[in-house]
Design a protein that fits this description.
Oligomer: homodimer
Number of helices of chain A: 6
Largest interface: A-B, 45 and 45 residues
Structural class of chain A: mainly alpha
Number of strands of chain A: 2
Shape of chain A: globular
Helix content of chain A: 55-70%
Distance between the termini of chain A: 34 Å
DNA sequence: ACATTTCCTACTAATTTACTTGGTAATAAG
DNA sequence: CTTATTACCAAGTAAATTAGTAGGAAATGT
């Protein structure tokens, strides 16, 4: 299991793409600008995303990236897997010399937990996230019309 | 959000501690042996775990570590937070110049997702994991009484 | 032809991970 | 009281990963 800042960048970029790519492709330069991620790092991430067909690139002027498929068909797990390898839990390689011992038990417990986290992230799609964001935006607007306060302004 | 191999080591070690610490403390040397983690790295991890009072150390011969509280009162999130800092999502620092823009929207979406993953891991305790493992062990034993085969004996 | 953009490779600085080394402090047992 | 055992502590380090730079080549719309 792996869920690093790299995965966060990828998810963030994909969200940006889903939000801004409704009419025409989005350039990496725009995402770089929007999200504060270096262009070349985005290129690396998008190479991975493209390999898993989560995005589709269009070259030339007016080009950029589209989502590879509908936002509802792209899970967070898909995105994180694409850039973070993931796949290899502990599993003891399935054969190491921890047959039956405590080591194998704890490893399989971690393995189960990993699978569960994976399932959890598989069930959340880009589309889900965006819709929730829209709700929240609406809620926030409703709140703002009543309570005109930022709320969080800690040091 | 952060969920790296470091967190995995910590969870694995805590599982080992919970499983073997039923009658008397467990030494880091034992955990090191069981789980294949270097002693000093365990010391580092346990320094963090102890700071959050997730474990309690006893010095001297016959000493070792106890869980800081019951296995049911220690969540996976507790453990990962202790060793991985976590806490700082993107949040734009709450003030950066992305007020209202796409950047802040995507960041807050990621933020929400992080919180959700956190909640998820908060609801799973060490005790939960162990009980699941016991179920699995029982299942396995039942199987073994029928199928008398190790299964995995690859090179 | 030209500007734009993806696409590709190699390199690098910074950070994190995992480990090593070399201790000190507490404490149970002889 | 000495000794072995253990937690505890700090500094340093090799390896891996993260994030970014640099310098292109290959498409492609204008």
């Amino acid at each position: 299991m792996r869920l690093s800042t790299k995965g966060r960048y990828a998810v963030t970029a994909m969200l940006d793409l889903a939000l801004n790519g409704v009419d025409g492709p989005v350039t990496l330069a725009e995402i770089s600008e929007n999200q504060g991620i270096s262009l070349s790092y985005l290129e690396q991430l998008f190479a991975s995303l493209r390999a898993k067909e989560l995005v589709r690139g269009v070259r030339g002027p007016g080009g950029g990236y589209y989502l590879g498929r509908g936002a509802d068909d792209i899970s967070i797990a898909n995105i994180i897997c694409a850039v973070d390898e993931w796949v290899e839990f502990t599993r003891c390689g399935g054969r190491k010399n921890c047959s039956g011992g405590e080591r194998c038990l704890t490893h399989s417990l971690w393995d189960d937990l990993s699978s569960e986290i994976f399932d959890f992230l598989t069930k959340i799609s880009l589309g889900d996230l965006i819709r929730r964001g829209e709700h929240k935006k609406a809620d926030k607007a409703a709140h703002l019309s009543v309570v005109n306060d930022e709320g969080s302004r800690a040091a």
